[in-house]
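Because discrete structure vocabularies remain unfamiliar, we turn briefly to a single example record, giving the amino acid sequence and backbone structure tokens:
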Amino acid sequence: MAWFGLKFKTMSEQKTLQLNIARVDGSLFMGEVVSVTVPGSEGEMTLLPDHTPLVSALRAGTITLRKADGETEEFPVVSGTLEVSKNSVTILL
């Protein structure tokens, strides 16, 4: 798709990463996302496909994920841990 010479990726062309948000009592979300924004211990960060491996503590705030269809979902977080590895993000709350 093009608009004034700009090319936009269709939903099927967008790179995604696998996201799993879990608590001790079960999974809150498991699926493919285009991005996820988290309240890291040192500040808010947005993770995109091909992000560098990372482990971080999370502080109180909101996790916001964006799916390939443009839909967003939000999850409140008090504290937790985040791990990024090979286009996969795991968040333990």
Notes: The domain at 14-92 is CATH 2.60.15.10 (ATP Synthase; domain 1). The chain has a mean pLDDT of 90.
